[in-house]
Amino acid sequence: MWLQLALLVASVFALYFFLKPRRPKNFPPGPPGYPIIGSIPYLMKLDSTITGGMTKMGENFGPVSSAFMGKNRAIIVNGWDAVKQVLFREEFSGRPPFIFTVDPKRNYALGLMFVTYNELWKTQRRFTLRRLRDWGFGKTTLEGMIQEEIQDLLEETDNKIKLSNGIMSVSDAFGIPVINILWAVMAGKRYKHDDEKLKEMLRRIFESFRSQTYVNNLINDYPFLQHVPGFSGSFNQFMKTKAHTEEFVEEAIDEHLKTRDPLNPRDFLDDYITEMEKETKNPSTTFFREQLVALTMDIFNAGAESTSNTIAFGLLYMILHPDVQEKVVQEIHEVVGKDRIPSYEDRTSMHYTEAVLLELMRIATITPLTVPHYTMEDTTLNGFNIPKDTLVITNLDSVNMDKAIWGDPENFRPERYLTKEGKFVKPEQAVQFGLGKRACLGESLARMNYFLVFTSMVQRYRFAVVPGEGKPSTVPVQGFTLAPQPFSALLIPRNQNNS
Length: 499
Prior knowledge:
The protein is an alpha+beta fold. It is globular. The protein contains 17 helices and eleven strands. The chain has a single domain, classed as CATH 1.10.630.10. It has a four-stranded mixed sheet. The protein has a three-stranded antiparallel sheet with strand order 5-11-10. It has helices at residues 2-19, 40-46, 50-61, 80-88, 119-134, 143-163, 175-187, 196-210, 215-221, 232-259, 268-278, 289-320, 322-335, 351-363, 397-400, 403-406, 443-460; strands at residues 64-69, 72-77, 102-103, 108-109, 167-169, 373-374, 379-381, 384-386, 391-394, 461-464, 488-493. The longest helix is centred in the middle third of the chain and has 32 residues, at 289-320. One of its GO terms (molecular function) is steroid hydroxylase activity. It comes from Allacma fusca. One of its GO terms (biological process) is organic acid metabolic process.
């Protein structure tokens, strides 16, 4: 009996030490890892949020630390110097093989966001950038389309506040306008702001972005967990949203296949389908329908969530800082006037507004952690050995909230970007859209959208706290990206108070 018990205990200890993850030689320091779950319990104790946990890893172990995400070894990168190295160096440009991104037929990821650094990614990104620029990304040719959408948004807002004594929900007001701008380029179509089908899809997308947790790392390592209650909820929600969005995109592609004229392309989908037809006889082509679906979903999902949340956060901070709001309005009136919708070219004369927008993106970083990278080969970082196939978590928030860079990062202070003469200067460390080869594909459109929608709304309305309610919270809702907590505002048309 005692011998059997001793053998059982010895076997358990042997199994524990066999399964216990170990750091390679000269690997960055970090907390211990446990069999199966890795360092996740330690990280969860550090902070209630994933971003906060990553920041505290830097405080506890230095700018380059390590942990075990389930059974995968990972490095956590904090601080400007280390972050810049990782984002610019090619050997850190891979992507890990996430279970939810791998196409089951081909056994590799499709699209762009989750595709590793390979020929498919290079070819598809090059084509996508070129074609999106042709259709107006970052150019004034797209501005008229955005201004048309803004005009509809302003009219809709006027009608809403007339019926609600000036009170409007702000946190969810910009999803469809942003999607309409993006979808007009991608698929040549705009939707009515009350379109129930699109509103439902956006609701699902936003909820799936909120559902990203440490548990998903375990499901990636142990796929059977997706069927286990307590583990499966967020993952299954994500997969249902993915299927719903795929159906939406597939319908758009089918419609384009039926109605397109190859000699007169209308939008990005037409261009891509033409390229697919050119590549039909190429056995190694990267242009095929499933890739188009995944690529379109990447652009659709990323563009809708991040830009609409950025605008909402911007208006939230205007409520909390009415003095800043009025300075922005004064500059708009001086440069643009009270009636004309701002143009993107106006920004070159609006130094204070540019400083405000950059400060908003710094203090409310929508994507505080970049999409995880993956080492393509054995390499080094800050004197540590980093083996091939190591997960790389890059903390942009550690840069945007670094006291050594900003002095008082917790304070909302647009003046930090202005010279004594009042000229706007963007510092190198202001990183909102990533850097290097993996920098955000839609940065130019996102910046244009943000400037035009934000300035048009502030030009038209004064945003204030709803009477009888407390100030809206700046504490974000956590997820793959950050979102403001639901909030409403009192909107006062500026033509009512002559301001």
